Amino acid sequence: MPVEGSGDGRMSLTLFKKTNFSGRSHPVTSSHPNLRATPVGYRTRSLTLSSETDRALLFSRRQYGGRVAFACGSREVPHCGREFFRPLRAVRIDPFRLHLNVTVVRSGRDFPGSWTGERDALAAIDAAIDWANRVWATGMLWLERKSTRVLHDPRTFELRWPWSRVPSEWTRSGMIDVVFVHRIGRRGSFARRTPPLDRSTIVLGRMVKRGEIRNELMGHGLAHELGHRLGLGHASPRDDRLNLMAPGSPISLDPANLRLHPDQIERVHRSLAANRGRQVERHN
Ligand SMILES: [Zn+2]
Prior knowledge:
This protein is α+β, with helices and mostly antiparallel strands. The chain has helices at about 80-85, 120-135, 215-230, 260-275; strands at about 15-20, 20-30, 45-50, 55-60, 65-70, 75, 90, 95-105, 140-150, 175-180, 200-205, 210, 210-215, 280-284. A hairpin with a 3-residue loop joins strand 1 and strand 2.
C-alpha cells in the first residue's frame, strides 16, 4: 500500500561498493530490510542522493536495527565509514507507520474541542492526524488511526501534574496512545495540551487561540507531543522558531512551514530501532 512521501520513482539514492562512487552500484528504488540480496551487499562504501527531496535512513543491522543515520537532500558521501558507519545492512526510503490508539473522553454532554458529536470528533481527529503527517512524513514517519473509542466520563477529567496516569485500559501495547479530553487540569475550557504525562501517553485538551477553538492546534499538538513521546526535547526557540519542537504556541499553523532537524529525525529513529522486540511500535 503506497504511503504519501514514500519512494515514488524520483528517489535517487545510489549505493556504491567502493569509495568515491566507484565499483558496482545499486540505485535504490525501494526500501531494503536486507541489502545482502543487492549487487552491493553489505559493502556500501559511498553513496549519492541527487534530489533535494531525497531522504533515506541507513541501518547497521538487517530489519532496520542497530545504528541509524539519516541522509537527506542532494549530496555526495564519498566515504560512508567516515560520514556514517560501516557496514550498512539495511536502507529505508519509505516512512515507517506508527499505529495510534485513539481515545475520546466525553465529559458530561461535552466532546473535546468544539466537536458536536462522535462523527464530528473523528473527522477532526483525522484532520489532526493528516496535519501531523505533513510534518512527520519529512521525518520518515506516518501516523495511522488504528483503534478508536469514545468513552463517557461524567467526572471532569483532571490530570494532576506531573504524575497523572490515564487508565491502563485506554492504552494498547504496540501502539501510540492518544487521549482527547474536554479539558485538562484547572484551566477549564482554556485547557490545552500537556506533555505526555508518563512519557507514554499523549493527552490533548480543547485548544483555544485568542478565544477561538482551533482544530488545527490539535494537529500541531499531536505532532509536537509525538516528538516528545519519541524522545525529543524542545528545540531552542532562538535557534529555530519554526521547528516543530519549539516550545510554546506554534509560530505557524501551516505544517508546510514547520520543520524537523536531521539530528531530531535521527534521534527518533534511533529510539524506535532500539525499541524493536520490546514493544513494537514501528510498522513497515
Ligand atoms: Zn513541548
